[in-house]
Structure to design on (228 residues):
C-alpha cells in the first residue's frame, strides 16, 4: 500500500513539474505573443474605444490620428477586435483577426465613417543599419488618386501608391527631408509636406490622411508614426 502511494505521489509530482515547465516555456516563448499598434485614420469618424477580446485597451476617447503604440504581449492566435463609438457599446468595427506569434502588426481604422473598415499590416521592425532610418508610406486618403511621394523638385521615393496600399519599410539616410505628394506618374504636386526629420536607427510610418476635398482637420495631409 505504502509502495503504491509512493508511486502515485511520484507520478503526480512528475506530471506537475512537466506541466509547470511546459507552461513556463510557453509564456517565455516569443512565438506565444504578438505586438499590435492601432491607429484611428478615418477623417470623419468620431472618437472611439478599442477593445481586444472585450477588454478596452484605450484609456481615453481615441480620436482621429491617435495611435496606441505597440501593445505588447498580445497572445497570438485569433483575437476579437472591436472599435466602438467612445463611451458606448455600439460597434463600428467587429472583426476576428488571427495574429502570428513573434510578429508585430499595425491596425488602421480607415475610410469615411459611412464605409469604415480596417487595414492590417505586418511590420518589419528590423533594426536599421548605422546612419539609416526605415520609412514606409501608407495611402489612407479615401478620395485621393494614386500618388507618388517625392523629394521636393527631386526623385520619387515611394511610387504609385493607391488607397490602402502600404510600401515596404525603406532605408533612408538619417536627416531632414522636404517631401511632396504628386499625382502618380506626373509632376503635378497635390500637397507639399512639412519637413520630416528621421533619426538614425528609428523606424517610421508616414501616412496620407484626410480627404482630397476636405477642409480643416479633415483636409488632405500626412501624419508620422514612430514604430520603435
Amino acid at each position: 500500500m505504502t509502495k503504491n502511494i509512493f508511486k502515485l505521489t511520484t507520478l503526480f509530482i512528475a506530471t506537475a513539474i512537466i506541466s509547470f515547465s511546459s507552461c513556463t516555456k510557453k509564456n517565455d516563448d516569443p512565438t506565444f505573443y504578438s505586438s499590435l499598434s492601432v491607429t484611428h485614420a478615418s477623417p470623419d469618424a468620431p472618437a472611439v474605444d478599442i477593445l481586444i477580446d472585450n477588454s478596452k485597451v484605450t484609456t481615453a476617447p481615441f480620436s482621429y490620428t491617435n495611435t496606441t503604440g505597440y501593445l505588447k504581449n498580445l497572445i497570438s492566435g485569433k483575437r476579437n477586435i472591436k472599435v466602438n463609438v467612445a463611451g458606448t457599446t455600439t460597434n463600428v468595427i467587429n472583426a476576428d483577426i488571427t495574429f502570428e506569434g513573434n510578429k508585430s502588426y499595425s491596425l488602421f481604422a480607415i475610410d469615411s465613417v459611412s464605409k469604415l473598415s480596417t487595414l492590417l499590416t505586418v511590420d518589419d521592425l528590423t533594426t536599421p543599419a548605422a546612419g539609416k532610418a526605415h520609412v514606409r508610406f501608407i495611402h489612407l486618403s479615401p478620395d485621393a488618386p494614386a500618388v507618388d511621394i517625392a523629394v521636393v523638385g527631386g526623385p520619387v521615393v515611394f511610387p504609385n501608391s493607391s488607397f490602402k496600399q502600404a510600401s515596404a519599410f525603406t532605408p533612408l539616410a538619417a536627416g531632414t527631408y522636404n517631401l511632396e505628394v504628386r499625382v502618380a506618374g506626373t509632376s503635378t504636386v497635390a500637397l507639399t509636406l512639412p519637413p520630416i526629420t528621421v533619426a538614425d536607427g528609428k523606424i517610421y510610418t508616414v501616412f496620407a490622411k484626410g480627404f482630397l476635398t476636405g477642409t480643416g482637420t479633415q483636409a488632405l495631409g500626412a501624419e508620422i508614426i514612430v514604430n520603435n
